[in-house]
Amino acid sequence: MSDAGHVPGTVRPGGRTARIRTAVLRAAEDALIECGFAGVDLAEIARRAEVGKTTVYRRWGTPQGLVADLLADMADQSVRRTETGALADDLRANARLVLRTLTDPRQGVLFKAVISAAAGDARTAEALHRFYAARIAEWSPCVEQAIVRGEAPDGTDAAEVVRAVSAPLYYRFLVSGDPLDETVADQSAHAAACAAGAGAYVR
Question: CA–CA distance from 112 to each of 60, 69, 146, 190 (Å)?
């Protein structure tokens, strides 16, 4: 995106505008959870948020623009990485954070709705990709520090290691329906840490 403009809903001023944004994004969350992407009707969102329709249409423009801003807000609010000084423990913390998100009664349903919406809409998909890129960038320093400590070889792709932790959890969440619990999360983290240490993710 050039400096000449911005995607509707991505400006973050304070005061009344910030309160309106918060109310509208929470209303969008509720609609996604209850009805999926089909439920993100701007007029209905305005009603739920007790905000004027004109404000919502002017600021977000489309349901896709609103969901994109919701994802940007979710990225901003996401939990920071854990740094324990050991790669296996850092990755375990990451896996358990992903587990808590996916198994949360509200957040899990919200992520399924957003992922489903992204499958059929390019703009929503782009916003979802930005969200996950931000989360991978947040946790990649744990792997980079592990390389410095000698826990993984030089040239290890830190982002791939982080992806390897959550990929099995998302597979269970979205595809297989197999149980998701701390044992599964810890196994995923352990496997990624062992593979990283063995050089499996060297570029």
Answer: 22, 17, 32, 26
CATH class of 78-197: mainly alpha
For residue 93, what is the enclosing H or E element? helix 87-103
Hey, what are 152's tokens?
């993984």
Looking at domain 15-70, its CATH architecture is: Orthogonal Bundle (1.10)
At 86-142, the pLDDT tens digits run 999 999 999 999 999 999 998 899 999 899 888 888 888 998 999 999 999 999 999
3-class secondary-structure state, position 156: strand
Are 53 and 17 in contact by the 8 Å Cβ rule? The answer is: no
Domain range summary for the chain, segments of one domain joined by +: 15-70, 78-197
0.70 exceeded by the pTM?
A: yes
In eight-state DSSP terms, residue 140 is H
Specify the long-range contacts of residues 120-123, CB closer than 8 Å, at least 24 apart: 120/37, 121/37, 121/64, 123/64, 123/65, 123/68
DSSP secondary structure letter of residue 86: S
Q: Which DSSP state fits 39?
A: G
Rounded to whole angstroms, the Cα distance separating 202 from 155 reads 5
Q: Which residues contact 73 (CB under 8 A, 6 or more apart)?
A: 21, 25
Distance CA 111, CA 104 (A): 10
